[in-house]
What does this fold into?
Amino acid sequence: MTAANPAPTSAASAPDAFDVRAFRTCLGHYATGVAVVAAAHAGARCGMTINSFSALSLTPPLIMWSIRNESSARELFLAAEHFSVNILAADQIEVSGRFAKSSGDPFDAGGWTCGDHGEPLLGQVAARLRCRRHQSIPAGDHTILIGEVSSFEHFDRPPLLFVQGEYRVSAPHPMGRPAAASNDTAQALGSASMMRLLYSLSERWMDEFDLDRATTNLSRSQSRTLAWLSDGPKTVEALGANIGISAALVDDDIARLLALGHIQVAASQGFELTPSGQALRRDLAQSIAQFEQAKLSKLDPVQVAQLRQLLIQLLAS
Ligand SMILES: Cc1cc2nc3c(=O)[nH]c(=O)nc-3n(C[C@H](O)[C@H](O)[C@H](O)COP(=O)(O)O)c2cc1C
It folds into this structure.
């Protein structure tokens, strides 16, 4: 590590003090897509959200993913000869959440068809692969499933991404794109949908603000947790629904914020901000206000006020 590198936020090395939560947080820095794997066997079907999917071999065409040994779907996936991998599109967060639950039948909502071997195939996805189970390898508390790809298709839809416990969308890196391409993009924006414009601006501002947020050592979802708690105590379920992440990930954020002393268990129910959490939340809100001020200062204040009103109107409708 060079002197210019920032100090690590946390580290776990001694095997006897191995911190599984910290390990999971560390692994979460590797950005992935999100897929739903699905299979049918002996009249039953199952589907689950995964991000352990990975390419394995081109010739023969192999892919792999891993399933928790305690998963209720493991037996069926190990018995089924075929399975599908449905790579979710950016607008399929709801599908990801539905197939990550252990209760209820995620197929009830529809939006799927049956493949040649009964394996469910989801619609509106970014890409889809049909596989024959090639090998399964027990490894630690998971089992690796390797599939030989029998057919695949991809569609013109941006993929859903997952990193640091949050859903994201992909965008070209500003430093990885030649200048000419930026002008092309500006031209293309003229005919882009409103949805794309709003989404792209929000993503770009969030990415840029991450640099300011880095000084607080909090992730996006942790700072959003502080924001949601600023108007009163909330349960883990309410926080998950507001922030749009799973209860397990809220648990991680809660554990970190508790350890940092920014939140505490509320007397009524759920969690609330401590005085240090309130101060940090105020600092973050001030940084956001300064960030926005810098962005908007070159624009006509009347137009900015009108834009604000329009956005509020659209959000309320
Ligand atoms: C983004 C995301 C990625 C996930 N990746 C995996 C994975 O790779 N392997 C796995 O076993 N579970 C993974 N899960 C958890 C399963 O989706 C979840 O445990 C399962 O659907 C719940 O049913 P079960 O309790 O029967 O396992 C993931 C969940 C989410 C939200």
